[in-house]
């Protein structure tokens, strides 16, 4: 039986150099967890701008067989949209990757923030 990992919470500024820092903090997790967390962080950079403050949380779920990744930012209006990127498109694949890898994903909106989350089977 695997021992569950302690939940992780990081407060970062969404910048390109934050992505490898985030992957480093998640090195005990599998590739899919690191990839999805990085894609959700990159979405904040791309859609809200570099330097946006974010909170990243990674931990288990109540069911116990999934890892939940959450990225919270201060803009409740800029909602993620699943796009179908063309073969030559240079962007638009991040959320498609999350959608393909995750068991489920979604958005929780608050009055002054939103959290984009996904859950991956362990």
TrEMBL record:
InterPro entries hit by this protein: Anti-sigma-factor_SerPK, HATPase_C_sf, HATPase_dom
Record-linked SUPFAM superfamilies: ATPase domain of HSP90 chaperone/DNA topoisomerase II/histidine kinase
Superkingdom to which the source organism belongs: Bacteria
Location of the Histidine kinase/HSP90-like ATPase domain: 32-117
Organism annotation: Streptomyces canarius
Pfam families documented for this protein: HATPase_c_2
Keyword field contains Kinase: yes
Protein name (record): Histidine kinase/HSP90-like ATPase domain-containing protein
Keyword Kinase in annotation: yes
Keywords: Kinase, Serine/threonine-protein kinase, Transferase
